[in-house]
Amino acid sequence: MKIFLDVGAHEGQTLQSVIDPKYGFDRIFVFEPVKKLHNQLNKIAGGKKNITLLDYGLWNKNAIQKIYSPGTVAGSLFATHKNVDENDFELCRFVSASEWFNSNIHNQDKVYVKLNCEGAEADILLDLLSSKQIFKITDVMIDFDVRKVGGLENMQQVVLDNFEKNDFKRYSLCEDVMRGPSSITRIQNWLDNTGAKETGIKTRFNQFFYWIKMVALGKRPGYDWEVKHFIKFHTPMFLLKILGARRN
Questions:
Q1: Spatial contact of 188 and 198, defined as CB atoms under 8 Å apart
Q2: Are 57 and 135 in the same domain?
């Protein structure tokens, strides 16, 4: 099964990226513990059967914890995060990442994970690493916001050192792969370059018509960038078809 985990979904920018049919995800799990963000997530999910919206977050244990500045882009478990207001918080539910993986992800699954948790990503990754559940992941894209948390600024290096020690290499850093003029194009650039894109003719046509529909509805910013990449990707295929037809 081909699975996507959106850990820290916020307002659904990543979800908008991965519902594109060119990826063909069988299951998409959306983790967002802040309740007021679920109305927007439900609109994007649109009742699609392959999308599961979860009203809790992943962490390194099962707990009810405060999220400071909930609903903002900086919303964090950590009061020492430099962009949060410790007087503004919501009690939210979290579950152990290793336990969730053990119950829901199988060794034969192809699993892509986006981690954007404003500091909790370090705890999640170390939990998955210590349990060996991390080796079920095909590629995880990490935004190390823990660098913004007072007292935990060194945790990115701790995680990366542990990756090296355990020979885990299936990860991408946000600053290396998030390229493009919008959140949608940046997420898709990461997925396209880590093997998530399907290459079948049927998938390409489905994706083309989906893309045209999104453009017509005004839901795809960064059109110029996308048009250039679409032409670059599809031109060789059409030229080969034309040349093949002429030879026949």
A1: no
A2: yes
